[in-house]
Amino acid sequence: MSNPLIMDIDNSGALEITLYFDFLCPYAYQTSLWLREIRDLIGADEVRVDWQFFSLEENRWSKEREGWHIWDQKPGGELYGLLPFLVAAAVQLAAGDEGLDRFYLALGRMRHEEGLPIWERQHLEAALTEAGLDPIAYHEALEGTYQPAYDKIKSDHTKAVEKYGIFGSSSLVFENSKAIYLKILPRPTDAQAIELFQFAQRIALGLPMIHEIKRAHTPEQEEELKEATSLSFTGLK
What we know:
Elements: E1 15-21, H1 26-42, E2 47-53, H2 56-64, H3 82-112, H4 121-130, H5 139-143, H6 147-164, E3 171-174, E4 178-181, H7 190-206, H8 219-228
Parallel strand pairs: 1-2
Antiparallel strand pairs: 1-3, 3-4
Helix pairs in contact: 1-3, 1-7, 3-4, 3-6
């Protein structure tokens, strides 16, 4: 019997959701926590979450600098997101989505709840350890010399843009078919989690006439939002 909470349009037996995210994005972090909760509530056998990379720095600088791509750069300087991506890509290649899930959970908390500079090696090593991974095994990625990680970043970001038309973090792709851009802050309460999940599915898969919905903010709400994301942007230019 099919689960009434999910729209399994390809009849695979589960709802496939891909989260395209940037480690620096506070909205993506909240979305990732929400998706983990949905997966736990409904069941990992019925909701499958795939983690893929979308670089906000690539999205910005490639438009301003002809021929520039983040996967052609080396970590450091003004690039805060590259080294976390390189380590995460190496983790996904070696330890799969489960390893990346644990690593993202640790690194996301460090950045968005503690305000730590996650582009520094010591914090990346601490996140690896917290995720049950040996930092020594990822020394090439930590040094910025692991080419398969660069290739993974390029592949994920290019697919996001060219196949799904994705333009920001966080973006969700349902059933390898339809993408939506979603900014969540704060994470929904337990009572709201399923309600938001069904709404997001409906927007992505069931209401093709809707092209954009955007909430208007009063000046007071904008100030509240800035305060809520202040830790995430600490240390960034």
